[in-house]
Amino acid sequence: MQPTNDPIIIFTGDGIADAGQEDKLSRLRQRLDGSDRKLLLHLHGGLVNKANGEAAARRLAGTGDGSWGLSEDWVQVYVVWRTGVAETIRNNWTDLAEDHLYQVVLRKLLKFVARQIGIPTDNGARSVEDRFRLDELEIQDRITGARDTKDPFADVDVHFSRQDSGISRATLTGRASDIELADEFERQLLLDADFNTAIAEIDAALNESQLSRSSLTAVDPVRGRKSLDHLSATIRAQWPDPNRETDEARGLVAVGVFMLKYAGEIAYRCFKRFRSERHHGFHATVVEEICRVLYADRVGAAIWGLMVQDAADHFKPAGFGSSLLDVLAAAPEPSRFVVSAHSAGSIWASHMLLAMASRDLQIKLRLFLLAPAVRQSLFAQAIGGAANQIELCRMYTMSDEYERKDAVLGHDKGYIYPSSLLYCVSGIFETLGQNAYPDAPLVGMRRFTAAPWLNAEEAAAETVVSRFFQQPQNGIVEAPQLQISEANSHGAFDDEKFTLKSVASLF
Fold this sequence. Notes:
Radius of gyration: 25 Å
Shape: globular
Number of helices: 23
Helix content: 40-55%
Number of strands: 13
Structural class: alpha/beta
Mean pLDDT: 90
């Protein structure tokens, strides 16, 4: 006989409950039949593996500082979905940081960008390159962790933050257009010895079977093979498979021209973002665009896309979310219904609100968002349809200052990418249809509050979201705040004791 306060933990994949989960919905229905029942639905952030997801659910459902501390009259449901990919992303990106081609392109582009961007002084603008003495050796030390492993370009990035009103802002100098700057970067790479060595290594890897060619080049085909394997599948697919006898060898010049095209595209994207204020800082922006164009598969863009789709799939006719709403529609309305959602769980929660509105399922709920990764446009749509059902909403998220320096791979890996998961999602993972969507506005990112660079559609969604949180029953807690929410990293919001206590006090 299970205790009445034992959490109901449901595992799903592709929107469907895993095999053997059917009885859990029946148990939920039975437990909601009790008098004065309160229901908590917690949606974790995805990305954790199954074992850790279950452990977190049991911790939150238990007692002590790491729990909600709820009484036995609460029915607690935890959905563990799209699990087991965080470790893969972390390992892949850490491995990519040591890739020869990646380091060359990153080093060269950072130096080129630093030369084109100036910081105002009393005597006119001074380039970032000159102001911080960013020669290639200095940049190489910074991007490999030989200096500050947490935030190696903090001295530069302070000039790219809109929060520091007393600091002079970095701006593009000169009259060259984004296309002209991209063309200039391509011309520099064409003559660059380091870039041509990296290309020669890839060419050698592509033609290992042709001894007459590979023996003529004093390069490392093994290192070239690693560089080739790190590239996204869409790029690798455009090269012949060297193991197929029918494929002709790809010439060194052709490989170089091919990669120069992508390098130019990356430079163009960077300058377009710097010019339009859609950048995420000096270091992060360049890393984001290199990863988006060349290595999206490796750093998790495809996985994130699957997670976003997975959240929506839960509310298809055969999805678990639809089955859950069937139970809620048939059961007596709980005396209190609370939905808490961490990170990507907010995407799941938004689709649930939309599904409830489409069914005209009038159940009052309290909504708590912890570092939400949902796009503003989706959340604006969700709250527009569920305005009468949400009786209270609180968002707990980090200030932009902390968001920018919460390195997603770990605080000792800021030299690879300096900012949080939300910055990573906004800068690399999000798409608009089939197109890249850099600087996609996310609800949990304070950077977008009244941001003047938003387009008309984005600004309309931001206004809806801001007005929603300005309502007296709603609000935003910007962490860290002493003894209210001391979460100072993205992953801390569902285990930091003051945050949990603060949230649970409003249940």
